[in-house]
Amino acid sequence: MAYYKYDQYLQKSNSDAYDLTYGPGATVPHSGIYRCQGCGREIASNKGDPFPPQNHHQHATSQPIKWRLAVYADPSLK
Ligand SMILES: [Zn+2]
After folding, report:
1. Is residue 14, in this structure, part of any structural domain at all?
2. First to last CA, the chain
């Protein structure tokens, strides 16, 4: 679970970007915090970089690593 302290720095969004998943080595579409759908592990990834490789971590079951956007980092000035 990602944590935060100040409400004014995070905003609820219903974007479809939060519903897509990405496998190991896929290109990160948006900078932000991603959560593995198989185990709940979280990572911070930058747009354009690859997601971690298959050997990043193991699951007890054969469930694949699937990264899903949890928190989008907005690069524009507000
Ligand atoms: Zn996992």
Report:
1. no
2. 26
The answer as to whether 67 is a domain residue is yes
pTM, entire model? 0.93
Q: 43-59 in b/e burial notation, b at 16+ Cβ within 10 A?
A: bebeeeeebbeeeeeee
How far does residue 65's CA lie from ligand 1's centre (Å)?
5
| Separation of CA 44 and ligand 1 centre (Å) | 14
pLDDT in tens, 21-69: 999 999 999 999 999 999 999 999 999 999 999 999 999 988 999 999 9
